[in-house]
Structure of Oxygen-insensitive NADPH nitroreductase:
Amino acid sequence: MSKTLYSATRLELEGVTLPENILNQTIELLTAHESVRGFLPKPLPNGMLEAITTAARSAPTSSNLQAYSIIIIQDEQRKGKLAALSGSQHFIREAPVFLVFCADIYRLKHVTASQGYKFAANTLEMFLLSAVDAALALQNSIVAAESLGLGSVPVGSIRNDPEAVADELGLPEGVFAVSGLAIGFEREGVRRGVKPRLPEQVTVHHETYSTTNLEENLAEYDQIMISRRTYDGRRVSLAGEPEKHGVEYGWREHTARRCTRPETIAASASLRENLRKVLEERGFSFQ
């Protein structure tokens, strides 16, 4: 991995050189992705939003069930409410468009009943299928938006208070908001450069899963994130436990702390801790 901390693309950051006949605009766009959390008060030109949603609807979908829905939010008051429900993230209010991607089995239940059958797909597989469908549509939207010169950032904190979000958006039983996506023209100065990822050897495996040199690769990544000062001002509290001394605060320490209890993932003890219960109340099943 390159020692460069701030680069325009992951190819530059990691010193990857691709053959000229392989490198194209799509690869450059994908490897230049950076989450943008600051937007100009500027509406999207005519046709842009339709281009993004059409790209989203072109994503792969399991068995053509299309078990997802996208809700477009442009009303300032509603954006404000959703921002408050999503950790008070101001960029949601700033963005001219906020999309909410939902796992949706309401429509499948309706079709099954209207055809005279009993819906029996109350399974964990159906929830995973619908959540993956929503995620694929989300990713297509990100790529489409960035290809048009827009900035974007997915918002997982839309799941902080799923019942309140469902009430605000009028979601029927069988529809669950998986992620939001803020889209708009970015404000100057909000980028920090493409964020380093774990070394390829850690997340990409050939033929079988490998843990070879895992510790060494994690240590290397830790030092990169420490050098970049990624977690300055973002340390996860140990909630009453004594602070460790002599331990560098990098990706490993930050990640380990976030995985010690549910609230460190969602920033509050009451958030996302009872998602299974909420999902079951909203018409999903985990058989």
